[in-house]
Amino acid sequence: MPRPRVFVTRHIFPEALDAIRKKAQVDLWEDELPPSRATLLEKIKGVDGVLCLLTEVVDAEFMDAAGPQLKVISQIAVGHNNIDVAEATRRGIPVGYTPDVLTQTTADFTFALLMASARRVVEGHEFVRTGKWRTWHPLHFLGQDIYGATLGIVGMGRIGFEVARRATGFGMKVLYYDSIRKRELEVQVPMSPVDMDTLLHESDFITLHTALTKETHHLMSDAQFAKMKKTAILINAARGPVVDPKALYRALKEGKIGGAALDVTEPEPIPVDDPLLKLDNCLIVPHIASASVATRREMSRLAAQNLINGLEKRPLEKCVNPEVYEKT
Ligand code: GLV
């Protein structure tokens, strides 16, 4: 039997690559930047499996280009809005992803964004670095208190819940909005389910933890910003397009809200001349919420294992569309 062929669209942890190499012939895309669409479609021709990132659009055209022998798509991320999962399911192709292993790390980072923006950490650092610090001043760098503040969580999934748990340690009051009430979580951490308008009106911090879907695209836009407190801070560690960036700019510039801290943007990467980057009250980092050594190592392992299981026709450890197994 010839060894299966796989395309891996970026470097991952070496031990995970080694594990794949023991089972398959690996074509690894070595560049830091993603392959062009044309190159990607060429590279995947005839492969049995693909290990991909959120930068690759995996749609019907992609699956056609790969061919009918494609057995598995393994994404190294929990979000999978770049993949047409319904199309993969129609073709009986399991889609792997990396939930759970990044939950705590992403919740930690959400808090890092919250605290950094509330207390103007990056602005302060720039002030020192550029030689502007001349004295201690009672009115310098005044921010927002975290203890005692109200946190509104949009999307009470795995990450949203871990953010809620952290918030109670800081003495915050937690509100959440989700299309499904999570009573089983409310008994573990004190938090109140509310409608979106109440969350917008009452929260001092609003943090987004929802998947990007048609329904959540530009969920935060002019109408929502208009309902927020003038001092409120928005945190987005979910997906960029959940926030309308032009509306966010207007809200920040016109003082409708107090600040924003974004791990994700629309588009990604955000162009260096984007007006959001000119604002002192908008903190932007390059989509790094899950980027701890241990978590990225575990994401690499899991993505590699999902790929290997798919090649060997075994159920994936973490599968987005387990219904493919009901069809066979
Ligand atoms: C990263 O954004 C992920 O979805 O894991």
Task: Please sum up the structure shown.
With 328 residues, the chain is of the alpha/beta class. It is 35% helix and 14% strand.
Structure description:
- The chain has 328 residues and is of the alpha/beta class.
- It has two domains: 5-101 and 293-327, NAD(P)-binding Rossmann-like Domain (Rossmann fold), CATH 3.40.50; 103-284, Rossmann fold, CATH 3.40.50.720.
- The chain has 13 helices and twelve strands.
- The strands form two sheets. The chain has a seven-stranded parallel β-sheet with strand order 8-7-6-9-10-11-12, with helices on both faces.
- α1 (14-23) runs parallel beside α12, α2 packs parallel to α3 and α5 (103-118) crosses α7.
- It is globular and about 75 Å long.
- The structure holds glyoxylic acid.
- Glyoxylic acid (GLV) binds next to loops.
- Glyoxylic acid (GLV) is lined by residues 77-79, 102, 290.
Could you name the key traits of this structure?
Rossmann fold; seven-stranded parallel beta sheet; 13 helices; 328 residues; binds glyoxylic acid
Question: Terminal Cα separation, in Å?
Answer: 23 Å
Total of helices? 13
Number of domains: 2
**Judging by the overall fold, what is the CATH architecture of the largest domain?**
3-Layer(aba) Sandwich
CATH third-level topology of the largest domain: Rossmann fold
What share of residues is helical? 25-40%
Q: Tell me which ligands are bound.
A: glyoxylic acid
Largest sheet: 7 strands, parallel
How many strand elements? 12
* Strand content bin: 5-15%
Order of helices and strands: EHEHEHEHEHHEHEHEHEHEHEEHH
